[in-house]
Amino acid sequence: PILASAHDNGCICLWSTQGNLVKELLPFSKYPSVPLTALCTDISTKMLLAGSKEGHIMCWSIASFLEDPQNSKNQIKEELCWRAHSNEVVALFHEEEKNVVVTASIDGSVRLWHAMDGYYLGYFGQPRKFELSDIRRLILPCDVNNFPTIIKEESKHVEKKKFEYPLMLDRDK
């Protein structure tokens, strides 16, 4: 068994039951790291989902890693990132049989998303029924304007290089 913890620096730590750090994950994103506020997995623990303070949902494939955490070939791969809410995500739930993710925000909204591609399916309290089979029409909630981002295999989190720039006083300027 592996335990997961979400942190203010945007990092997810995976721990052994003995308390040893097994792996540290940083989301691949064009946005700076923000505090993570919610975590969940599907029942078969193939996917790990995290929600952020800024309303993003990130999804990792963890099945091969959990089969053999010591094997360096079995990596955790971030597959998907999308903006689910304009405010903090406070709860996440993955329903594996229907292949949907339910998200809840601090603003009181509860939304339904297609788990494999982050497509918006609707919100709880809407007048129409959820149409789970029709994901062809790409719609977004009124407060979200970014489409889901599928993260390619070759995408890697780029470390920021440190450069040294000495400060020099130029009195003429």
Automatic annotation (TrEMBL):
Residues 34-114 form the IP5PC-F beta-propeller domain. It holds the Pfam family Beta-prop_IP5PC_F. InterPro entries: Beta-prop_IP5PC_F (IPR056454), WD-EF-hand_domain (IPR051242), WD40/YVTN_repeat-like_dom_sf (IPR015943), WD40_repeat_dom_sf (IPR036322), WD40_rpt (IPR001680). WD repeats lie at residues 82-113. The keyword Magnesium does not apply. SMART domains: WD40 (SM00320). Keywords: Repeat, WD repeat. This is WDR64 protein. It comes from Pygoscelis papua.
